[in-house]
Design brief:
The structure is a single chain. This protein is α+β, with helices and mostly antiparallel strands and 331 residues long. The chain has a single domain, classed as HIT family, subunit A (2-Layer Sandwich), CATH 3.30.428. It is built from six helices and 15 strands. β5 and β6 form a beta hairpin. It starts with a strand and ends with a helix.
Length: 331
């Protein structure tokens, strides 16, 4: 029969709907239309994008010219702008501030490549380093409170361009989702004097039924109260709040683990659309607890509808134990 499971971090409830049970073969992604000929992210088309913010490039090559292997540019249609003052206003019940922040695009390769797992591990490591470097640079702006890296893979996940890229948004406030995580960490710390993420790593490693992949420094698992079929988290085994302090061996292990998980997705689900979210500790603000950075990968295999919007309770037709077992089969 169906189960209601509570996610320990945010205490959100999830319905594991065995009555609607779905196996990997039940999820079929739509084919992606190629736009190789007119792709603005490909090498040689640098003048078609906003001027680059930063790039890893070969010596002797100039800004906004070919010769790069990872390139960061402003989003052409940014959600937030870096220039200006906060100018927070209150009018009765209504609070307003200017849309100050940053919205950047990390172009992951000069080649016209669509899927992230096709990157060699060394290229994924360079992408991770770019995430870290942009995070460290933007946190110097004291107006900013939260910086998130994310990736939309496939049109169903919100990607408007197929060329492999990720994005970074820096906010002048703490998002509600992060405030909920912080509150969950505080409650667990008060009850146990331990980090909730560290306890997750220990319990999922010992239990093994939701384990997807493991390296020396990273653990990948389908969380107990997964919101989406095949939802997978990658959590560093070492307690570290700040993604900006990721070590070089962790960069390598994260690249290896991330690629392994996405290859498994491809083998089991046929390259599904997904959202990748990198959560790290807030910046320039005291939160009263030690965070633990991590990555959440959310395959977009089901539709969010009235129940989810009205109650914040998700329906997942694939138990995480079934999802993890299917993913573990592919090494």
């Amino acid at each position: 029969m169906p189960e209601l499971r509570q996610e320990p971090l945010t205490r959100r409830w999830v319905i594991i709907s065995t009555e609607r049970a779905k196996r990997p073969q039940d999820f079929k992604p739509k084919p992606i239309e190629s736009h190789t000929g007119d792709c603005v992210f490909c090498a040689g088309n640098e003048e078609k994008t906003p001027p680059e913010i930063w790039a890893y490039r070969s010596p002797g090559t100039g800004r906004d010219q070919p010769g790069w292997w990872v390139r960061t540019i402003p989003n052409k249609f940014p959600a937030l702008g870096i220039e200006g003052e906060m100018n927070e206003r209150v009018n009765g019940l209504h609070k307003t501030m200017n849309g100050i922040g940053a919205h950047e695009v990390i172009v992951e390769t000069p080649k016209h490549q669509v899927e992230f797992f096709h990157h060699p591990v060394q290229q994924i490591e360079e992408i991770i380093r770019m995430w870290r470097d942009r995070y460290l640079d933007l946190r110097q702006d004291k107006r900013l409170k939260y910086i998130m890296v994310f990736k939309n893979e496939g049109p169903e996940a919100g990607a408007s361009l197929e060329h492999a890229h990720s994005q970074l948004v820096a906010l002048p406030l703490l998002p509600k989702a992060i405030e909920e995580e912080i509150e969950g960490l505080k409650m667990h710390l008060k009850a146990t004097n331990r980090c909730l993420f560290c306890d997750m790593v220990y319990q999922e490693g010992e239990d093994g039924t939701r384990l997807v992949a493991e390296s020396d420094t990273m653990l990948a698992f389908c969380p107990y109260a997964s919101r989406f079929p095949f939802e997978t988290w990658i959590v560093p085994k070492r307690h570290e709040p700040d993604f900006g302090l990721i070590s070089e061996n962790e960069v390598h292990d994260l690249g290896t683990t991330l690629r392994e998980v996405l290859v498994k997705f491809s083998m089991v689900l046929g390259s599904p659309p997904y959202n990748l979210l990198l959560h790290s500790t807030p910046v320039n603000v005291h939160i009263g607890v030690s965070y633990h950075w991590h990555i959440e990968i959310l395959p977009r295999l089901t539709k969010t509808a009235g129940l989810e919007f009205g109650t914040d309770i998700f329906i997942n037709p694939t138990p995480p134990e079934v999802a993890a077992e299917s993913l573990r089969r592919y090494h």
